């Protein structure tokens, strides 16, 4: 089975992890600090707070906002459940918004309709690596004194108007899990220009303790620490950080291969029947997912057909406003609901061979060219409009 995603670890990552094991210091320590410094330099930001996951980074970001009585966070429903859980863990309520059909990113016009006196923040998701319209979102947020905190789990390495994703809004949260543009095996990071938000996040990250174990190792009384507030346990270990450092050195290699595969898919699949395009600006985006939109009720059948020929595909995602755990926040989102029935993610990762890419293209093409949806007498080429 060709997997929809997989990490790309090699000898450098193994050696980096082995070095940490041999050092006997495997928790948050010098490698975590090095990774934070390297990320800050790459992104051009003042502060990086490395975490155990992107979910943890989002939780820290939400919890580090100065609470002022406002309780609502505007967020797209079409995202991974982690985005919503982070909002709830921080004590806020999600207000689900629509996404743009052509990008799957947050619909700014819908955000404008939803902004109100209870809005504390807007949480856009850079879907599949494609940046949201951050300039418009910040313009909408400013009159309401609302923060913009971005979920960039898919978007490490992508840019927006020439600047690295991570340099916009109040904070940006990244994922370094196994299926992301670079991987720590598991991990994440919160990045921000705000001294205050970074300080609160670092305190919350390690149980509200003023100095973590590595930072106080050379003090006269290294066992002494102060718990200065509430906190969580969501820091990054040195093993994960060391793997991340090795992966960061390979980002250009990964970006080139991901863009090459996405461009090959685009060229081969753009004129297939029963499809609509998803916009990909590969010059500024490192594609984390390759999403195809399949119309006329054919998505599930295509998924089954691909699985039958040894190709694993995904669906990103089941909308959160339809999830039972979030039913109290449910509202009608017809665009999101239609998209959720049409989108399918084809395999996209750096270990894909050209033969595998050709096989995937051949099987998708074969299915869609011969598909006969109910009520249609012949295929209609509907790819030209979004």
SSE blueprint:
Elements: H1 11-23, H2 30-43, E1 47-51, H3 54-64, E2 72-76, H4 81-89, E3 93-97, H5 108-114, E4 119-122, H6 134-141, E5 147-151, E6 159-160, E7 163-164, E8 171-175, E9 188-192, H7 195-205, H8 238-248, H9 251-269, E10 275-276, E11 290-294, H10 299-308, H11 334-340, E12 343-346, H12 354-370
Parallel strand pairs: 2-3, 2-4, 4-5, 5-8
Antiparallel strand pairs: 1-9, 6-7, 8-9, 10-11, 11-12
Helix pairs in contact: 1-8, 2-8, 3-4, 3-7, 9-12
Index terms:
alpha/beta; about 375 residues; about 35% helix; disordered C terminus; 2 domains; 3-stranded antiparallel β-sheet; 12 helices; Aspartate Aminotransferase, domain 1; Aspartate Aminotransferase, domain 2
CATH superfamily of the largest domain: Type I PLP-dependent aspartate aminotransferase-like (Major domain)
Q: Report the CATH topology name of the largest domain.
A: Aspartate Aminotransferase, domain 2
Mean pLDDT: 95
**What is the C-alpha radius of gyration, as a whole number of Å?**
22 Å
Question: Helices and strands: which structural class?
Answer: alpha/beta
What is the number of E strands? 12
Q: What's the level 1 CATH class of the largest domain?
A: Alpha Beta
Low-confidence stretches: 378-386
Q: What order do the helices and strands follow? A: HHEHEHEHEHEEEEEHHHEEHHEH
The main pleated sheet reads as: 7 strands, mixed
Count of alpha and pi helical runs:
12
Give the total of domains. 2
How much of the polypeptide forms β-strand, as a percent range? 5-15%
CATH architecture of the largest domain: 3-Layer(aba) Sandwich
Strand order of the largest sheet: 1-9-8-5-4-2-3
Classify the helix fraction into a percent range: 25-40%
